[in-house]
Amino acid sequence: MELRTLRYFVAVAEERHFGRAAARLHISQPPLSRAIRQLEAEVGASLFDRSPTGVGLTRVGAVLFDEARALLDQADRVSTRVATAAGASNLTVGILSDGTDPGITRLAAAYRRKHPNVEIRIRDTDLTDPTCGLRAGLVDVAVTRAPFDGTALTVRELRADPVGAVLRADDPLARRDHLTLADLAGRRWFQFPDGTDPVWRSYWNAGESREGPVVRVVQECVQAVLWNGTVGMTPLGHTVTEGLTVVPLIDMAPSRVVAVWNEGDTNPLIRSFVQIATAAYRDR
Predict the structure, then answer these.
(1) For the chain, does the N or the C end have fewer beta carbons within 10 angstroms?
(2) Pairing, β 163-168 against β 153-161
(3) What is the DSSP string of the chain?
(4) Is the pLDDT of residue 251 over 90?
(5) Chain mean position to CA 29
């Protein structure tokens, strides 16, 4: 069994769907399906119960899943130790999402346990660069929010958060249980500076051309709402300043927390980081 094939198998087992696993692995579905069929032939048993809605592990598949994850973890530890011995003993991580996010807290603790000798350098960035300096070579990997221009980048979704409108507590709409984007038509909306990633800007403007104050950091957005009654946006669950409230938007696409790194970067510290991040955000 090749490690690559086992990684394919683990991805299908975790995603419970060939299509989602293929997207996660950045390959098309036919070669993934062929690899799994070949693995089943080598094992001599079916690994998945297949249905129109997805797949589930068979008894044999469950045994292989446990063993494959252990083997892949060991392989990653070997790669990491070799990389550390060769001098690759630090990793620069860009962070845009909320630093109080429990997912980040779990990720930091889990990474320290697995890689106690790797120095992590954190680069906190403002709202104008959703890749946190990745394209400029300032970070190795980032935990941020999508969507943004993903050209030449590899993106792994960690979590999807519903979004709400941030309003002043005395705003007439603040008393509503939920809102639609149409309810906010004609309202002033925060803006990102010229040159900001257009995909990122379009998402936070809900796909519309808006007018309003230009902001670079979260606190500027908060103050624009407090002082000017501007509409702000935030993932649900984030704590807001006194005097503000968050009303769920039922027709806004979720804000996705993602790990992102440069396409083709084979640094084992990055691969291990992404695997640990995936588990940390899944265990909530």
Answers:
(1) C
(2) unpaired
(3) --HHHHHHHHHHHHHTSHHHHHHHHTS-HHHHHHHHHHHHHHHTS--EEEETTEEEE-HHHHHHHHHHHHHHHHHHHHHHHHHHHTT--EEEEEE-S-TT-HHHHHHHHHHHHH-TTPEEEEEE--TT-TTTTTTTTS-SEEEEEE-S--TTEEEEEEEEE-EEEEEETTSGGGG-S-B-GGGGTT--B-BPPTTS-HHHHHHHTTTS-----B-SSHHHHHHHHHHH--BEEEETT----TTEEEEEBTTSPPEEEEEEEETT---HHHHHHHHHHHHHHH--
(4) yes
(5) 22
- Give the model confidence (pLDDT) of 191-200 as tens digits: 998 889 999 9
Looking at every residue in the chain, the average pLDDT score rounds to 89
Q: How many CA atoms lie within 13 A of 234 on its CB side?
A: 21
How high is the pLDDT of residue 241? 85
Question: What's the predicted TM-score (pTM) here?
Answer: 0.72
Give the distance from CA 219 to its chain's centroid.
22
Nearest CA among 48, 66, 64 for reference residue 56: 48
- For residues 124-148, average pLDDT: 91
Q: Read off φ and ψ for residue 217, nearest 5 degrees.
A: -130, 165
- Encoding tokens for residue 2? 């090749």
Phi-psi region of 229 (alpha: psi -120 to 50; beta: other; left: phi over 0): left
